[in-house]
């Protein structure tokens, strides 16, 4: 990706020097280090094992495995990844051990598992697949004993630079957000897990929006690309009735109905929620009961909390909350939002300021910031919890590392594990529990 639009996607004309300084500040709520760091681990001692040996060692026991994707091409960032890396997590310490060799893949920047964990789906965030101005998506089968993946096939997504994908709850369709393409794609999933044809491709249109929101944090020089439509996330709601899509370029959150037989998207009665101009809605997540949606604005680093009508897909905003403390000053771009598996806590990563915002979720679904934790790394693009919810892992895109925290199940507080896992330009996780078969 070499155009101004592509490079502007995540470089945004930023004050990078200011980013380094803000990342060093223990932000306003006063994080303190509870435990001293351990002695550095020699590189030769970093854990690594073969998938087969790990399977034999843990025979008969459930194992927590994780795939990590990253950037293999320069464009929105330097590219040090080589493909998709398989790790096994130690259930007691959270340490990640690489299993086997990295699976080569072209810019595998986001990953999604099938519900039965038999297949892995990956976006290839490129713009030149098959000589077209299109990205692609790749399907892999998963060895149920070792976790090793085998490529099934790769298909075009119909738009450039796909940034996100998810599997529809029916298991019949893959939903893809084409960022530069500004479109939502629906791809059929074949009975053998491979990818079939595009069943629909919807292009978003709308007026040009400002590059900054009026309510962004003071001193924020970071901007989001509003030159055109930029789909950043697409996923079904909890009930599987509607498809929700964040367009960071048009400042809209779209709502569609998916025809289960034809795989075609049609606008809901209320086709979109209009967000703060310039806010760049990036990602969202739902409450466990599906009645509340949390929408993250990238440029203004704010969360919109909205009531969600599961019958119509309509959203009614009732709260907004900043992902940085009131004392914060400087450039920041919010990246990832996610609920803890318990549903009691909500977290957001802030790039440039390099922090994790921690919120309590109240009984009515509203949120309250209770801490902001220094990431101890650079540009936390995404995060994920292991299936037990005991650990939180952050993919640090610009510092080529994964860092982790132990989550207090009662308070949601994050305690840094001092585990650093080196891996090139990480951008996404897919955790799952593998039971021996």
Residues in helices, as a percent range: under 10%
The tally of beta strands, per DSSP, is: 30
Largest sheet: 6 strands, mixed
Mean pLDDT: 90
Q: How many H/I helices?
A: 3
By secondary-structure content and strand pairing, the structural class works out as mainly beta
Radius of gyration, taken over Cα atoms and rounded to an integer in Å: 20 Å
Strand content: over 45%
Low-confidence stretches: 1-35, 40-45
Give an overview in words.
It is a single chain. This protein is mainly beta and 437 residues long. The protein has three helices and 30 strands. The protein has helices at residues 4-11, 16-22, 51-57, and strands spanning 48-49, 63-70, 83-89, 96-99, 103-104, 110-113, 119-124, 136-142, 149-156, 162-167, 173-178, 183-189, 195-203, 231-236, 242-247, 252-258, 265-274, 281-286, 292-297, 302-308, 315-322, 333-339, 345-351, 355-361, 367-374, 380-385, 391-396, 401-407, 414-422, 426-434. It is globular and about 55 Å long. The termini are far apart.
Brief overview:
This protein is mainly beta and 437 residues long.
Set down the secondary structure blueprint.
Elements: H1 4-11, H2 16-22, E1 48-49, H3 51-57, E2 63-70, E3 83-89, E4 96-99, E5 103-104, E6 110-113, E7 119-124, E8 136-142, E9 149-156, E10 162-167, E11 173-178, E12 183-189, E13 195-203, E14 231-236, E15 242-247, E16 252-258, E17 265-274, E18 281-286, E19 292-297, E20 302-308, E21 315-322, E22 333-339, E23 345-351, E24 355-361, E25 367-374, E26 380-385, E27 391-396, E28 401-407, E29 414-422, E30 426-434
Parallel strand pairs: 1-4
Antiparallel strand pairs: 2-3, 2-30, 3-4, 3-5, 6-7, 7-8, 8-9, 10-11, 11-12, 12-13, 14-15, 15-16, 16-17, 18-19, 19-20, 20-21, 22-23, 23-24, 24-25, 26-27, 27-28, 28-29
Pfam families: Lactonase
InterPro entries: Cycloisomerase_2 (IPR050282), Haem_d1_sf (IPR011048), Lactonase_7-beta_prop (IPR019405), WD40/YVTN_repeat-like_dom_sf (IPR015943)
Keywords: Carbohydrate metabolism, Glucose metabolism
């Amino acid at each position: 990706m070499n155009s101004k639009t592509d490079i502007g996607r995540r470089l945004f004309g930023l004050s990078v020097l200011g980013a380094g300084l803000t990342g060093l500040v223990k932000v306003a709520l006063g994080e303190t280090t509870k435990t001293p760091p351990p002695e550095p681990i020699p590189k030769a001692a970093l854990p690594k094992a073969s998938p087969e040996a790990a399977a034999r060692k843990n025979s008969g026991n459930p194992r927590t495995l994780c795939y990590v994707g990253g950037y293999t091409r320069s464009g929105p960032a330097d590219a040090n990844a080589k493909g998709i890396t398989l790790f096994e997590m130690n259930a007691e310490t959270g340490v990640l051990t690489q299993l086997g060799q990295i699976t080569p893949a072209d810019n595998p920047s986001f990953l999604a598992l099938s519900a039965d964990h038999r297949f892995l789906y990956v976006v290839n965030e490129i713009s030149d697949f098959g000589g077209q101005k299109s990205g692609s998506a790749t399907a892999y089968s998963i060895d149920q004993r070792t976790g090793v993946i085998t490529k099934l096939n790769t298909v075009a997504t119909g738009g450039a630079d796909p940034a996100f994908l998810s599997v529809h709850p029916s298991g019949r369709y893959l939903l893809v957000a084409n960022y530069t393409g500004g479109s939502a794609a629906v791809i059929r999933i074949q009975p053998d897990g491979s990818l079939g044809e595009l069943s629909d491709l919807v292009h978003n249109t709308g007026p040009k929006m400002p590059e900054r929101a009026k309510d962004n944090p003071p001193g924020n020089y970071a901007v989001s690309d509003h030159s055109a439509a930029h789909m950043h996330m697409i996923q079904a709601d909890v009930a599987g009735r509607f498809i929700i899509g964040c367009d960071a370029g048009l400042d809209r959150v779209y709502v569609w109905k998916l025809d289960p037989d034809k795989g075609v998207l049609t606008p809901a009665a209320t086709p979109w929620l209009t967000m703060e101009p310039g806010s760049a809605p990036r990602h969202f997540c739902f409450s466990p009961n599906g009645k509340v949606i949390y929408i993250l604005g990238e440029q203004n680093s704010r969360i919109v909390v909205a009531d969600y009508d599961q019958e119509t897909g309509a959203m009614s905003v009732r709260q907004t909350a900043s992902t940085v403390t009131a004392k914060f000053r400087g450039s920041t771009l919010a990246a990832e939002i996610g609920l803890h598996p318990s549903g009691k806590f909500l977290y957001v990563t802030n790039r440039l300021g390099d922090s994790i915002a921690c919120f309590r979720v109240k009984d009515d679904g509203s949120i309250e910031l209770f801490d902001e934790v220094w990431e101890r790394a650079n540009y936390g693009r995404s995060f994920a919890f292991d299936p037990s919810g005991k650990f939180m892992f952050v993919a640090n895109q610009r510092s080529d590392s994964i860092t982790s925290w132990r989550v207090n199940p009662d308070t949601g507080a994050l305690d840094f594990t001092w585990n650093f896992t080196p891996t090139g330009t990480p951008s996404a996780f897919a955790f799952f529990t593998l039971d021996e078969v």
